[in-house]
Amino acid sequence: SEDRKSVRFVEVRPRDLPDTPRRFTIYPCVLAAQGFTSGRHYWEVEVGDKTHWALGVCKDSVSRKGELTPLPETGYWRVRLWNGDKYAATTTPFTPLTVRVKPKRVGVFVDYEAGKVAFYNVTDRSHIYTFTDTFTEKIWP
């Protein structure tokens, strides 16, 4: 959006978009306007009634071209929903998550120095999942 606070999925042909080094070529990925190299940060993502979504953070150097393997070992820390009711942390193997109340908003908390990325169901104020790792470069919501 113009205010850089919302995004929606629209089918486009790849040739309609310029190929830049920061553009993801296959998957519809959106990065925030600002990344982090220190500090504690919190934001919320409105997922509404969607049946499929994935959200989290990635390190600056992730591959953006071709097929992605969005796992912590490749620089992605994310949770996802698919088929309307299946939740997982994208680990190897996937970590199934029990979510009692379908979230309309998901809170994401990053503590860069502690290496933590935590996800919360804002709808019922419950914890969803926490990744713990070591960050060595800029990470992007």
Automatic annotation (TrEMBL):
It comes from the Eukaryota. It holds the Pfam family PRY. Transmembrane segments: none annotated. Residues 1-141 form the B30.2/SPRY domain. PROSITE patterns: B302_SPRY. InterPro entries: B30.2/SPRY, B30.2/SPRY_sf, Butyrophylin_SPRY, ConA-like_dom_sf, PRY, SPRY_dom, TRIM/RBCC. SUPFAM superfamilies: Concanavalin A-like lectins/glucanases. This is E3 ubiquitin-protein ligase TRIM39.
